[in-house]
Amino acid sequence: MRYWRRGVWVGAALGTGALMAVTVWNRSLEGVGPLLSVLGFLVSLAGLLHTTVRPAVALSPAEQLDRSADALADAVRAQWLAEWRLRRLQDPEPLAVRWAPAQPWLSDLDEAIGWPARDTERPDLSGLLADITQIFGYVPSRRLTVLGPPGSGKTVLAVRFTLDLLEHRGAGDPVPFLLQASSWQPDQQDLRQWMVERLVAGHPALATVGPSGGVLAAELVSCGRVLPVVDGLDELGGQLRTRAVFRLNTELDAGDPLFLTCRSDVYADVVEAGDVLTSAAVVELQPLGFEEAAGYLIRTARPVRGPAGARATAWDPVLEHVRRHPGEAVARCLRQVLELPLMVAMARAVYGESGADPAELLSRRALAEPAAMEQHLLDAFVPASFRTSARWDGDEAMRRLRFLARHLERRGTRDLAWWELHTALPGPLRPLAPLLLLGAVTEIICLAVWLSGQGAESPVVAAAVLTGLCAGYAALARENAGLRRTLLLSVAYVIPLAAIVGATRPLVRDPFYDVPFAGMHELLGRLTVGALYGVAVAAGLGVIGVTTAPAPATMPFPVLRTWRHRRWVWKAAAGIFVAIPAVLIAELVIYPVSAPTLLTVAAVSAALGAFVVRGEGATAVEAGGPSRRRYGPGRAGRLGRALVRGVGVGLPAGAVLGLAFALVEGGTAAGRAEARDDLPFRAAVHRPADGGRYVVADDGTRYGLRPDGTAYVRWARPLEGDVIGGCSYYGGEPAFVPLSALSADHPCADATRRASVTAAMEVTAGTAATSAVRVRLPDGRLVATDGVEDWMDEAEWRWIARQDSGQLMGSAVSFGLAGGLGLGVVAGFAAGLHRWLGAPVDTSRTPSPLASLRTDRDTALIRGFLITLVAWLCNLFVAMLPMGAAVATVVVIPMGLVTVALSAWGRLLTARLWCCSTGRLPWRLMAFLAEAHERGVLRQAGAVYQFRHARLQERLASGEGADGR
Predict the structure, then answer these.
(1) What is the pLDDT of residue 271?
(2) First to last CA, the chain
(3) What's the half-sphere exposure (Cβ side, CA atoms, 13 Å) at 836?
(4) What is the Cα–Cα distance from 583 to 604, expressed in whole angstroms?
(5) Which of 179, 177, 191, 231 is nearest to 68 (CA)?
């Protein structure tokens, strides 16, 4: 079975490649376009069946939650163990952080905590770092608050608590999850909502649907499977701290565990302004002893040769001087600074292994104050960490990290998420930068086409489409913009454009394209229709649900996460996907084009696509050991629900937009029709016996209206041609073909049933199903014709194709509703695919930031491909659809590419182009962040980075250089 499945994929890839090769060799794309689309659909269908119709193992909801909690516990443990090692807390051992019970007024009542009535039975809460889980277990309420000054080791203690609790976690026990309080907005979010948000941000796979139909992260929280470890309550603003404690007190149920850290003075202010943390015992970290800090620095410092070959370190004379001269100001300052574990870690990094001499801490007068010495250690930490880097020197790393620290400080967060770096762009560029970049590339291509001597109007059309797209997308440029707001703003953009179409379009029916804007002034028509097209694409994006703050996606196809050959599947798929449109564009731009040229274009574009999509999105997942559960019909059910929901949103949205366009455009055109004169010019009006009217021009041409309102023109000059009967080209009906049009290659040139006619004939409008115009033969028959319109001037055509107000309004409503519903259906299907691909199918280990970036890139490309495929498949059936619906399907074609540009990966690309070209960030951004993480400057929290300590971020943000350069 395994080889059969692989054979399906290999066969599909070979078939697609062979079909494309034949197409290129024949230098013709006309006959194979539908085949390419159908083949692509079959390949996608094969993949869908492969991933959906698989044996399923039925699990109860409780078992599913157990498995998810176990997977989360493994992910959290792996994450913080790696961080523990990167920060070298085990080398040789952690600092001996101590704590003691805090002042009693900071704790809740004894009976609320659950302490026994006798003090002799109450356990001692004093302890060391390794005792933290034991002390936590002593507290009956299972709520503990840890206080201490900045840099006293509260975060390290929280990490140690998390790891120790996971080490001894039993079946069904909650998973400790470390939360940074700075990411909470307690005035807007409740506790559980915030926990769910952080769980999903750190572990995107938890955004999947849980066994009860809700978000899996929310179900884990609501079932008590997550133990919140809240670090840094002091990092919230004054009022927010009090509000946070209030929410903790009111939203935690009796027996819900909690571990909280805060600065001592800040927590005292919170208690005075509000209340203590309900049922929580409170302990306070104690300063390090000087000898403890000194011993740690000596053990971790690089050894040097001492007298008689004895082992010594650069710290020995400095520490000895402090011991001998305890009364000196600089000695007292160093003693005070080394009371903080953070400063001891900074001193180790700056002087322990770098070769720098710590004697400068005693010799520099500017460092005689504790604040100055702490700032000096923080400033020297980054250059010392990057001293051995082969890519970035310390000064360059400092400039880049200062920019990032300022960016985080402006946003009021500690999380350095790659998908939020686009917020570092200037205000107007934040929502529109991907669209502007995509538009700039398109405009360059159009200008190249224009300069090559073809498509002179293409740059104008591209600019109009970009303008309409940006204007329409402005409806989505706000957080949490709902569909109602999106529709209202889209309608606000559509109304003036529809009014322009209605006010400038000819009041005639186009014989070939039954659309309201056919025949408009060329430049105005292209600008207006281009803008309408852009607004329609933006409206489709609103239906799909593309927001301005995308989160990284997770790979939805298990086979592509675990198959060891997936790398080459990605490369082949990306190569084919990029090569097909490249060949199509080459056919349009280069004319005539040779087969070798097309083969070269296909090869180069395929290689480029394979290079961009490297297929490495699942690397980190494999390293963490993905879940081996199999997926069954529930996956197909999610697809069905997503499609139904997408179409349910798309149909009403498309109908509203289409109806708004129809009413405004049709009403404007109908008003113009009512105000015009009945006859084309002022002259004597003749009234024949049938009740019609006509006027006669100076050359004898008659312009008339029949009683039913049909316009006609009777030429004074005779027409010479043949009346042909039985020709299949005209459906077997008689037809008049002028002699000038009856060439040897005419479809009816060999017809045997024909008769020559030379006479002055009457011409009236035809239909798209018959011919552009129809002529009345001398015997009174009204027949189709081919080529007579070449004899007509513009005034004559406008007269016979004129429409009254009712016809104009009817055609506008027909086109608007058909177009709106067509847009709604296609965009609805695209929205269903987008939502389905946005929901992961399993709970796996936490990806690294780089792995989450690659996974989001791959998923974004899959989304774009499938959305484009839906649009192309709909275009296969345009002949069976009304013109409005056919035009609407064309709107969705670029939507796939736009969704890729607006994905988290696409936004990062634009942010990198701006920030890297201006020198704020390095071009190899993710490699730089990964190295900063490896060197201990950053720490990883799920898919995001954080600075090692809040004080380091604050110090970097306050450094010199306004732009971080």
Answers:
(1) 92
(2) 58
(3) 26
(4) 10
(5) 177
Q: What is the DSSP letter of 801?
A: T
Helices (DSSP H) in 104-190: which residue ranges?
110-113, 132-138, 154-167
Cis peptide before 840 (omega within 30 of 0): no
Task: Tell me the helices (H) and strands (E) count for the chain, helix number first.
Answer: 34, 20
Report the DSSP beta bridge partners of residue 802: 508
For residue 562 the two structure tokens come to 């675990």
- The two most distant CA atoms of the chain are separated, in Å, by 134
Kindly report the pTM of this predicted structure.
0.70
Q: What 3 state SS string does 709-771 have?
A: CCEEEECCCCEEEEEECCCHHHCCCCEEEEHHHCCCCCCCCCCCCEEEEEECCEEEECCCCCC
What percent of the chain is helix, strand and coil (3-state, nearest 5)? 60, 10, 30
Residue 334 to residue 322: CA distance in whole angstroms = 8
922: three-class secondary structure by DSSP: coil
What are the CA-CA distances from residue 648 to residues 30, 33, 145, 643, 818 (Å)? 35, 30, 49, 8, 16
Q: What is the pLDDT of residues 272-284, one digit of tens each?
A: 988 899 999 999 9
Length of the chain: 965
Question: For the segment 368-412, what is each residue's pLDDT rounded down to a tens digit?
Answer: 888 999 999 999 999 988 888 888 888 889 999 999 999 999 888
Question: What's the order of all strands across the beta sheet hosting 98-101?
Answer: 127-128, 98-101, 281-286, 143-148, 258-263, 226-231, 175-180
Q: Is the dihedral of CA 602, 607, 612, 617 positive or negative?
A: positive
Sign for the CA dihedral angle at 676, 681, 683, 684 comes to negative
